[in-house]
Design brief:
By secondary structure, the chain is of the alpha+beta class. It has a domain of 47 residues. A 3-stranded antiparallel beta sheet has the order 1-3-2. Strand 2 and strand 3 form a beta hairpin. The N and C termini lie close together (7 Å). The mean pLDDT is 87.
Length: 72
């Protein structure tokens, strides 16, 4: 991942650091397809689309989510 380390401001480890300590090599997150600001954030944070999508029924409406991932 790119950018300023999570611990730079607080001195605390970030989630990526904790995941690496547990042996994780990849992190993924689902986000609503129509959420352009979150998509932009994930892209700028080093995430990429995983090529997976799912549809959820939320209150009778279909919500499409896209899976994003980043290698740790």
């Amino acid at each position: 991942m790119t950018g300023v380390p999570c611990s730079a401001a607080t001195g605390a480890p970030c989630s990526a650091d904790l995941l690496r300590e547990q042996g994780a090599t990849r992190v993924q997150v689902w986000t609503v397809q129509a959420d352009e600001s979150r998509t932009r954030f994930l892209s700028q944070a080093g995430f990429a689309p995983a090529g997976l999508r799912r549809s959820l029924d939320v209150g009778g409406e279909e919500v499409v989510e896209i899976c994003w991932y980043a290698e740790l």
